[in-house]
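Final report, closing paragraph on structural work. Over the funding period we assembled a curated collection of sequence-structure pairs, and we close with a single example.
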Amino acid sequence: MPQAPECPEGDWAWVVLLASVVTQGLTLGFPTCIGIFFTELQREFQASNSETSWFPSILTAMLHAGGPLCSILVGRFGCRVTVMLGGVLASLGMVAGSFSCTLGQLYLTAGFITGLGMCFSFQSSITVLGFYFTRWRVLANALASAGVSLGITLWPLLSRYLLEDLGWRGSFLIFGGVLLHCCVCGAILRPVPATATPETREGLPPPSKRPARGCLAAYGRAVQRHLAFDVLRHNVGYRVYTLGVVWMIMGFPLPHVFLVPYAIWHGVDEHRAALLISIIGFSNIFLRPMAGLVAGRRDFASHRKYLFSLAALLNGLTNLVCAASADFRVLVGYCLVYSVSMSGVGALLFQVLMDVVPMDRFSSALGLFTVLESVSILISPPLAGLLLDTTSNFSYVFYMSSFFLISAALFMGGSFWALGKMERQGPRAEMEGAVTEAAPEQGLTMEDTDGPKKQLRMEIMYVTSV
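Its predicted structure, as stored:
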């Protein structure tokens, strides 16, 4: 089996980056096109907004919730096999979903199975970048996330075209074939030699020499290894970031689901409404790499957390503009400004996680991060759909989105600032305490001249120098 080059940023690393770009476009970019089928699915199954919202909610939640299982598969079989398995599952789910007769069947096939398969493919493609890139890791993450922008641009256009000619069932059948390209991308991911990535084993606890006391003990070790609860308990930065993102996700995906129905509801042509999502995706193709280049500069290395909070704040404020007017020109302007903040969130989301968590625990930390994130993703669209069914006013959906985004941004920014202040004050307080403690001892040895006192003075100087 061919091996990956041992040196970081080797030639094959950029081929792996290209495969990651395509994989993220096929997986993370896909849920945005569900809004194209929203009205059609409502009409087909005679369902309410809340009931229909469960389909994209389950799909996107599984896209993130399968992280722990993906972590186990990556550790057991490697990124290549996991990406290819995900492509097969995603394809089978969409093909089976095209034959669904009820919304429940659609939830299971195109929602649960497809979402799980996409999770395997996209999370493995993210994890492998951490092993192939070190110096250019920020740029690699930004370029890979640009694949999401390509997907957001192309999936709605393809969906609108297929929906007119083949209906939603025929479209889902074609999507099943398209998602098989994840298997091609997975085949490109050469396994990294163990000597090239010693850090992958540093954070793992050594296997116990004593037999396990039943399945419960084995289960506890597996949970600790693949869900990184110990990191959540001891790493304050990871805890703050995870809680902030989980709260932020309650509002972040709502425009992707409801923007197209919102425009159609206010009389915008269906083709022009579908174009709005493509405008967001096309703008992000250029904005995400630029955001990655800016965040990758050494001047901004210690400020990425604050840049992420600022991007989330801008995203929330932008949604207020969309709620103010449904004119097509206003919506186009909204999409352009929204793309700026979305590019910052997309380019920095996983990079900030890599900054606050050691790389040897990144896979398990990502698993727990995405599981908690998926809870918000699962709840958010149906909650917004229920709000829409109750009020019959789309503006409240965007107000809800703004509330969660703005409050999460203020929480993360304020918390990281407080943590940074505590870290700066901590070493200073320790040094002042050591100097204060050393001063009386030093004065004692200067007054007396016998041998034992001289020995004491040398020991105090040694401690303070360390």
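The longest helix spans residues 395-447. The CA atoms of residues 91 and 178 lie 8 Å apart. We thank the funder for supporting this effort.
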